[in-house]
Amino acid sequence: MFQLPADCLNEIFEHLENEKFTLHSCMLVNRYWCGVSVRIFWRNVRNYNTSNFSTLIACLPITSKEILYNNGIFISTPTLKTPTFNYASFCKVLSVNRVYYKIEKLLENQQNISPQSLKNYTPVVAQEIFQMFMKEISSLRSLSFYSYPDMTFNIYFIGAKDCLKNLTELCCSSDISTEIFYQLSQTCYNIQSLTIGFERTITDGIADLISVQRNLKSFDIMLCHGLRVDEQTNIIFSSLMSKIPNTLIKLNVYGRNNYFSLPFIANLSNLQKLKLSFDNNKYFVNFEKLQYTIFPQLQILKIPEKYPINGLLIKFLENNGKNLKEIYIGENKFNCDNSLNLAIAKFCPNLKKISVGIYYYELETLKIIFNNCKDLESIKIWCGGKYFLTEKEALEAFANYSQNTYELILYYQSKELFESPLHPEELESFFIKWTDRKPQKSLSLVVVNYNIYSLNTNDKNIEIINKYIKLGIVKKFKVTDFNDEECDIIS
């Protein structure tokens, strides 16, 4: 029987990295398939279920098993023999919290123990598992660890220098011990993606870790609810942010009930993507200083919730809009004029993707956007809610005014029972207009909603859509909700 070479199988299985059930099935085909797919399945600890941790227990060295036995911890394993593979060595993506949680579940399932015993046993098992990981993993790619009750991280990274030397992705919280940040700063110089959740405590060692990075590309700053922002915290933040290397090309800042000083962003002249996500306009502290900064490489601007008052943001677009390829602007309940949308049309002529809120009386502005942004490929239009824009109006404007745009995402902010639904005749009329366009392009239509009143709830509408899919007029039709990341056209 013809057998694909291992490198071909590996190339195929690589595309299944996030399909854990499919990968598991591949391991059961035969020894040959198992030998190739097992390495990919065990690469990411988030793929592991509780039984996988039983297998890891079987992989522990004799000294670790003796430690468990001496502590009265007895865990049944799939086999008493030496496992076929060194599973721990395959791990490249390690989540400390995920491992700790799964060990708790493993102990709960296998032993009738009290909550106090579970609290005592879990760190003992976790210590032996992590020490095995640190010894067996030759080069860890991604590491994440966040605060967890009764979990001490220091003991988990003993002997981890070789394992962590090629780490490229790190996700952690700011209240981890200084010793761990110090150890990471002595070992990890090539982190490319860094995510820090800033909690109540901000450990001093974070600055050391940031300052030694040689190739940091992406930084996610998450300002958590417990963070108390005062003058002292702002001083600490300013010191931390001054350490960010100018290699950074992607910056995401998330804040909930948090002030955050933004001027440090002006020093990041190589930024290509900037995302500022705050739930209140007033949290854009010092944006007036940022509005005059020019970012020559900036291509993606994403402000998905509240945004600075229009004058500041318009000035920012005047200075940076020409290079933008994608823009996502959220809602601002304090401002109902269309000056920002007109500014987008004027200062951002090279956009390929856009998400905007268009009021029902602003359809002429939408026409201006289509006329000025000749390269626009995808647009997300918010329907319903305060915009009072119906599906019919959005579809008609898209059919009449768009030129090279071939993807329409209808984003339902809300829809009430009294709002007029889209009739099948209106949908048919839209597709007829689209079919008559020159040049003719296949349409991608995405509906994003959380209610039952959007166009897809009418069976006749679905029949019409299926008809045009068969005719090749519609390339893709998808219905999704707000939790689906794919619905966000700016990933």
Automatic annotation (TrEMBL):
List the Gene3D superfamilies. Answer: Ribonuclease Inhibitor
List the InterPro entries hit by this protein, alphabetically.
Answer: F-box-like_dom_sf, LRR_dom_sf
Identification of the protein by name: F-box domain-containing protein
**Which organism was this protein described from?**
Rhizophagus irregularis (strain DAOM 197198w)
